[in-house]
Amino acid sequence: MRAIVINKHGGPEVLEWVDIPKPKLQSHETLVQIKACSLNHLDIWVRLGLPNLRLKYPHILGSDISGVLVGSGEEVVVCPGINCGQCEACQKGRDNECEKYGILGETTNGGYSQYIAVDSNKVVKKPKNLSFVEAASYPLTFMTAWHMLVAKAKIKKDDWVLVLASGSGVGSAAVQISKLFDAKVIATASTQSKLDHAKSLGADEVINYKEEDFSCRVREITQKRGVDIVFENTGKATWGQSIKSVKKYGVIVTCGATSGYEALLDLRHVFFRQLSILGSTMGTFDEFKKITKYMSEGKLKPVVDRVFPLEQAREAHQYLEDRKQFGKVVLTM
Ligand SMILES: [Zn+2]
């Protein structure tokens, strides 16, 4: 089969377009002919190399996969989370707390190829109203954003939610999920077109963080109160302003640090204002099924920015690294 692989860490140039054997199936697995696979920032981190991550080369990136079951022809979406199914966390439905938790394309081969063998219990029917490209554009980002807002931050009606980097995959998911729960959204982005996009997804207020200190604007918008929830995914560049934007007893929930992970924190804000800082990663299979249902009802929508053919994975990576996108960058086979 044709695939994009990496044989070492590095820039986009380490992505190689090659011919390799089709994956061999284990008893609990099913073979998926991949139609589309979307990119995540995770792909870039894995390509560059992460501490404690040892890859078996050649390695195939890609966590978000839609395709067709070989044999039955059923159209499916694949859950990107891999868990053991046996441990206490798994038994209680908290799969992303599994000690053996992994992600397709990170801990195993992923979707930058024509075929993949996946756990038969981790595929769901593709919503009929979504194309393969759209169906490959929601799993990881929506699971991540859902778990952050619903499971961790306990979002509720009329909460003010500040979504940072609303042009990112998780950001655009967070805007929509917040609106699904009838919360009020302030979205930040770096360009007018991204701010317009955030508005079109339902954001009540938008702030260009390149032009103004977003924490000042947030305090104006919320009449000095601050927001109930800050949806963080940028880290170092925004952390100080995020702390100033959250209200007393408010929550900052974070899933990433695309601008750097060594953020400064004035602890006085944390204890005097009794803030909660919550970390979150991925989500559960149950959440994935819930999100898929909302997708099929049109209540949540994948946001696709641009599609590249698989063989142009290098260009697609460069495009994502340049942060030109609003929503997802997708590879098609
Ligand atoms: Zn487990």
Which key features would you list for this structure?
Quinone Oxidoreductase, Chain A, domain 1, 2 domains, globular, six-stranded parallel β-sheet, 333 residues, alpha/beta
In words, what does this structure look like?
The protein is of the alpha/beta class and 333 residues long. The chain has two domains: 2-137 and 302-332, Medium-chain alcohol dehydrogenases, catalytic domain (Quinone Oxidoreductase, Chain A, domain 1, Alpha-Beta Complex), CATH 3.90.180; 142-279, Quinone Oxidoreductase, Chain A, domain 1 (Alpha-Beta Complex). It has eleven helices and 17 strands. Strands 3, 4, 5, 8, 9, 16 and 17 form a seven-stranded mixed β-sheet that branches. A six-stranded parallel β-sheet has the order 12-11-10-13-14-15, sandwiched between helices. Strand 4 (64-69) and strand 5 form a beta hairpin. 48% of the residues are buried. The structure holds zinc ion (ZN).
Small molecules bound in the structure, each named once: zinc ion
CATH H-tier superfamily of the largest domain: Medium-chain alcohol dehydrogenases, catalytic domain
Which outline best applies? globular
Mean pLDDT: 96
The separation of the N and C termini measures 11 Å
- Which sheet architecture does the biggest sheet show? 7 strands, mixed
SSE string? EEEHEEEHEEEHHEHEHEHEHEHEHEHE
CATH-level-2 architecture of the largest domain:
Alpha-Beta Complex
Structural class: alpha/beta
Helix content: 25-40%
Contiguous helical run count: 11
The gyration radius over C-alpha positions equals 20 Å
What number of domains?
2
The CATH topology label of the largest domain is Quinone Oxidoreductase, Chain A, domain 1
- The first-level CATH class of the largest domain is given as Alpha Beta
List the uncertain runs.
none
List how many beta strands DSSP finds. 17
**Approximately what portion of the residues adopt beta-strand conformation?**
25-35%
